Amino acid sequence: THAVMEQLSSLVAGNDSLRSFLLDFNLLQIEARPIAAGGAGQVYRGTYSGDVVAIKTVYSQMVRSADVDDICHEASLLAQIHNPRFVRLYGIALKGPIVHVVTEYVDHTLLEWFEKSAPGADREGFCAAATQLLEGIDFIHQRGISHRDLKPQNVLMTADAWNVKICDLGMSRAHTAGKQQTMTVGVGSPLYMPPEAILDEEE
Description:
Blueprint: H1 2-13, H2 16-19, E1 28-37, E2 41-48, E3 51-59, H3 65-80, E4 89-95, E5 98-104, E6 108-109, H4 110-117, H5 123-141, E7 145-146, E8 155-157, E9 164-166, E10 173-174, H6 195-199
Antiparallel strand pairs: 1-2, 2-3, 3-5, 4-5, 6-8, 7-10, 8-9
């Protein structure tokens, strides 16, 4: 646990994109009940300096050394992406054995939104949401980044309707210009993976 925290602290300190995103944990207020859960931690609603935020808590005792790179990778990409179609990164706060990744809070996943709103939604609204999603994907593709885990749970919708926010870049990959690369087999959620990712075909 101590070694993992030291590794994370070292990576953050050595990353120009992340160093300015280190947060004071004392400014965080975290609600008691999680709003989502994953393999290495949970996501909570809370506040940071008065703003409502989502707080992904990652327990270092449940994190492999290799996962530390993924945590910093996602935060580093979010720190570089300034686009309204992606959740905003507030920063990372370290407290004891827990890493807190703090991002903009968004009310619903796309799946939740469809389940609640789809019956009464109009065609123009659906087209607007689809357009925003494609704008976000095009934005990162133009910068050589593949999301690699795009699915309804990782596409969020704000309460003011038709405002799409993409999240969870932990599996994304930045591509090197002019270099032929292949997709990594097994990366992503099987039901939403493209055929080339399953078959390990060249991009």
